[in-house]
Amino acid sequence: MGRLTPAVTRALDILELFLDRDETLTAPDIVRALELPRTTVHELLATLVARGYLVTERTGGYRLGVRLYQLGSRYAEQLDLAAEGQQVARNVADKCQETVHIAILEDTDVIYIAKADSTQAVRLVSAAGRRLPAHCTAVGKMLLASLTAQELHARIPDGTRLAAMTANSITDTATLHTELAHTRARGTAVEESESNNDASCVAAPVRDRTGRVVAALSISVPGIRWNPERRGELADLAAAGAAELSTRLGFRRAAT
To answer: Does residue 115 form part of some domain?
Structure first.
């Protein structure tokens, strides 16, 4: 790695002060926050204003300029959920040595758009592109739980008889609504042998830069390795992985 350029680093430090602030900043605010000389700060501010990265207010403060929005929009256009998800899935799989999936919701089904396989001898076999009923899977429950009541009712009206994949599958909407309420309260979803008699899963939500849930990340485990303690460990890993993918998609906690 080459040597960092101090002036560029300081300019970026100034811009990053705005990440967790909605208000404008004055030159003295920046001097105090970064402990830089006043002359240096004024020179950097003048440069950032001239290039459109900051805008001056009548009050003498500074706010973010349109150039940053243009760059951010360009970055967002280049994001690929499947590609970013594949990288994160591999990272999570490396940590837990289990199968990891990224899925999206389409009507009442989930579609797996990325996966990373377990390296263990006994592991689950699946494929990206596979489609399953959402109510039978952890990723599906997580995605259904993110819908508004009206959106959920439009997809699955009350009284709908739900198809079963195993004897443990949810088959009525009352039970589904209760399960989704638990999912919202926990922040993670759980499936115990509901789509596959020999597997259980945990899942967490993936958000885009607006805070909207656009996908879910799950960790799937063969029954021989599933127990309450392992479930808790995997739920934490799934949540961390989903948070990493959300960050890659531009989500910041303040957005919600």
So the answer is: yes
- Contact of 110 with 141, CB cutoff 8 Å: no
Residue 69 lies in a domain: yes
Name the token pair of 179.
Answer: 């399960």
Rg, Å, the chain Cα set: 23
pLDDT tens across 94-152, in order? 998 999 999 999 899 999 988 888 776 444 555 566 889 999 999 999 999 999 999 99
User: Is residue 54 helix, strand or coil?
Assistant: strand
CATH number of 65's domain: 1.10.10.10
DSSP sequence for 60-102? S-EEE-HHHHHHHHHHHHH--HHHHHHHHHHHHHHHH-SEEEE
Q: Is 159 left (phi over 0), alpha (psi -120 to 50) or beta?
A: left
Q: Are strands 62-64 and 99-106 parallel, antiparallel or unpaired?
A: unpaired
Domain for residue 131, yes or no? Answer: yes
**N-term to C-term CA, the chain:** 36
Asked if residue 186 lies in contact with residue 69, where contact means CB atoms within 8 angstroms, the answer is no
Same domain, yes or no, for 54 and 88? no
> What's the token pair of residue 91?
């990272």
26 Cβ contact partners less than 8 Å away, ≥ 6 residues apart: 60, 61, 62
106 in helix, strand or coil? strand
What pTM does this model have?
0.71
Give CA–CA dist 56/20, Å, rounded. Answer: 19
Range of the domain at 41: 6-77
User: CA 53 to CA 230: how far, in whole Å?
Assistant: 47
Distance CA 251, CA 256 (A): 9
